[in-house]
Design goal:
With about 130 residues, this protein is α/β, with parallel strands linked by helices. Helix content is about 45%, strand content about 10%. The two termini are about 20 Å apart.
């Protein structure tokens, strides 16, 4: 059992298969976010690359379908993985999520495919 909480990147489809449709991307982000509570409930800290990348894009006056997005979305995940302890890979075709898994493996980080695989930790936080 880990003695400190792991920072776990939740990876899965965001733009993949959406043809740039904002509602489809929002639905994909909602699926990624749906895994946040289960990861947190294991005693760890979930993070999603888009939580960081999308505000960066907005601050540059761009969005997820702008040409700048490829220069922000993938590098954000790569930089974030340098700080993460593991990856939770959700189902679905996604070149970006596959890249996250490859990076995690190169870094020697565990890659989980189900929340049930994540080692549970008893949080020591106090109110």
């Amino acid at each position: 059992m880990p003695d400190k909480p792991m920072l776990i990147l939740i990876a899965g489809p965001y733009r993949s298969g959406t043809d740039g449709d904002a509602q489809a991307m929002a639905a994909n982000l909602a699926r990624l976010e749906a895994a946040a509570w289960p990861v947190f409930a294991t005693g760890h800290l979930p993070v999603i690359g888009e939580w960081i990348a999308l505000p960066v894009l907005r601050s540059a006056g761009a969005g997820p379908t702008d040409p700048l997005a490829d220069q922000v979305l993938y590098p954000t995940a790569d930089r974030l993985l340098a700080r993460c302890d593991a990856v939770l890979r959700l189902p679905g075709d996604s070149a970006g999520a596959d890249q996250d898994v490859a990076t995690a493996r190169r870094l020697g980080l565990p890659v989980y495919h189900d929340v049930a695989e994540i080692p549970r930790r008893i949080p020591r936080e106090t109110a």
